[in-house]
């Protein structure tokens, strides 16, 4: 690409592309996945599932997410993305509609698993496609803004559940998310498929993308750190409203308000961490991110009740998207010629540890433990993540050492 082409992209086009990516993440990651969190207490109250079954259903969804990310590792080229992205959005819409008709736990779990596969593919491929498009235009620093869709989506999901809580029940509670997904998925997919991102020679299938290892002395600490992040944040992001229901009296505003707090805190998170990473560097930013996120999960353990719930919602909501976007940028900086592939590998690892979180919670509850004490798993995981984040080398310094 000639140098002058890097500067000919209009702000309107940049906004349109980022909005399309944000819309797709809103659809699959909040209307598909995280809406389950505020729905869970209602589904339990409706008698559709109990708390242990709810954890199992969540685990199946996260298993699907892991498998979707692994699919994206195998089929990571631009031409693969153009095929799998619309297919995955179609699967999301169909499984969302199916969930409105299912009451049996086994069938609900199967639907959530398939929906998770679609989520994993889209969550890898949409941001990866946009990042490659932005890199060609010297606008990579804007890449984190695509995750604004998750923050907006959490607010949307909270509103959909709360506003329809009194006149829907059981499987019917999935209808608002299913209906809203259809036009949003169509527009976002159509916009991203129109992007000018040619298949580069190293992506032509000759194996060039496999040159160099994804796992080396620079990237292994990053992967280990990200594993801690996935396990650490997923407990409050899955069980915070249910924890509120267990800790607070009927009618307390935090029964619905805890998820609203998470949604509001998440709303500016992508912008904050994208801007902070550009200003002080992605590595210092992600270390600070882990400290704040750790304090959030710890608050739910140390101060059970309104104080802990509010602090957890604010601090985790403000940080978890920052972990994602900063880790993705650091990973690509360490392996600049394997962008979509390393993105998929990171998401696969994140997906695995997110699956482990609800599974460990289920085992703990079956052993007689409490949901409150299960949050210590998240605390330990985030301590792990912080320690390994401190061991990730500066990408520029790392490449300079390798070139000597």
Automatic annotation (TrEMBL):
Keywords: Membrane, Transmembrane, Transmembrane helix. Gene3D superfamilies: MFS general substrate transporter like domains. The keyword Chaperone does not apply. The chain crosses the membrane at residues 14-36, 56-76, 83-101, 113-134, 146-168, 174-193, 214-234, 254-273, 285-302, 308-330, 342-361, 373-394. Its main location: membrane. InterPro entries: MFS_4, MFS_trans_sf, Sugar_transporter_CS. It is a multi-pass membrane protein. It comes from the Bacteria. The keyword Protein biosynthesis does not apply. GO terms for molecular function: transmembrane transporter activity. It is found in: Membrane. One of its GO terms (cellular component) is plasma membrane. This is Predicted arabinose efflux permease, MFS family. The lineage of its organism: Bacteria, Pseudomonadati, Pseudomonadota, Gammaproteobacteria, Pseudomonadales.
């Amino acid at each position: 690409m000639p140098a002058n082409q890097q500067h000919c992209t209009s702000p309107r086009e940049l906004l349109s592309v980022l909005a399309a990516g944000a819309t797709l993440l809103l659809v699959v990651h909040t209307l598909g996945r995280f809406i389950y969190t505020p729905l869970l207490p209602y589904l339990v109250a409706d008698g559709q599932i109990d708390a242990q079954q709810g954890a199992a259903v969540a685990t199946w969804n996260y298993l699907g997410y892991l498998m979707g990310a692994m699919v994206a590792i195998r089929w990571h080229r631009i031409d693969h993305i153009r095929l799998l992205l619309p297919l995955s959005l179609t699967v999301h819409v169909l499984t969302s509609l199916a969930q409105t008709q299912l009451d049996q736990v086994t069938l609900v779990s199967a639907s959530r698993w398939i929906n998770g596969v679609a989520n994993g593919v889209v969550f890898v491929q949409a941001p990866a496609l946009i990042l490659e498009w932005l890199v060609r235009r010297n606008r990579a620093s804007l890449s984190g803004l695509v995750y604004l869709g998750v923050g907006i989506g959490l607010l949307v999901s909270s509103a959909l559940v709360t506003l329809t809580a009194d006149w829907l029940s059981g499987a019917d509670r999935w209808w608002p998310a299913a209906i809203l997904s259809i036009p949003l998925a169509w527009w976002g997919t159509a916009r991203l498929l129109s992007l000018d991102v040619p298949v580069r020679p190293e992506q032509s299938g000759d194996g060039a993308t496999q040159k160099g290892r994804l796992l080396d002395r620079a990237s292994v600490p990053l992967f280990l750190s990200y594993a801690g992040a996935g396990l650490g944040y997923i407990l409050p992001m899955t069980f915070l409203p249910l924890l509120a229901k267990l800790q607070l009296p009927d009618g307390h505003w935090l029964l619905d308000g805890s998820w609203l707090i998470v949604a509001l805190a998440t709303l500016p998170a992508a912008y904050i961490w994208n801007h902070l990473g550009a200003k002080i560097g992605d590595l210092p930013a992600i270390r600070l991110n882990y400290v704040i996120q750790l304090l959030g999960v710890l608050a739910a353990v140390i101060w059970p009740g309104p104080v802990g719930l509010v602090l957890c919602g604010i601090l985790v909501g403000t940080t978890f998207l920052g972990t994602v976007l900063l880790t993705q940028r650091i990973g690509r900086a360490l392996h600049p010629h394997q962008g979509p592939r390393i993105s998929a590998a990171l998401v696969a690892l994140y997906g695995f540890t997110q699956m482990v979180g609800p599974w460990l919670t289920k085992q703990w509850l079956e052993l007689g433990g409490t949901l409150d004490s299960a949050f210590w798993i998240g605390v330990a995981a985030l301590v792990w993540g912080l320690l390994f984040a401190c061991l990730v080398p500066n990408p520029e310094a790392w490449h300079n050492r390798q070139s000597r």
